[in-house]
Amino acid sequence: MVSSTAKEVFIQGITRDGRTFRPSDWAERLAGVMSSFRPGGPQPGSHLGYSPWCIPTTLNGVKCVVVNRELRDYEPMAWDFCINFAKDNDLQVAEACLLPELPRQG
């Protein structure tokens, strides 16, 4: 269950019983489907990049999709699609905040 105050939800490519979710490019596929949902709406060529509200990434070796709460405010059905994707595939979901990377020194 996702709380109504979550800023970001991490859909992790690990099932509740600990198996790695397949296919291996699931995160990119899910984020690709959500590419047109973005601030200002879809623009010409917006399908060529990911939405800032649905970003595929890898954390600690686990594929994830970070879904921002703003997607829910903009298009509740798109948010529900992502959350239901996680439920339907028995994927682990965590609420967190994605921090920007610090510049490397040295």
From TrEMBL:
InterPro entries assigned: DUF3579
Name this polypeptide is given: DUF3579 domain-containing protein
Species this chain originates from: Variovorax terrae
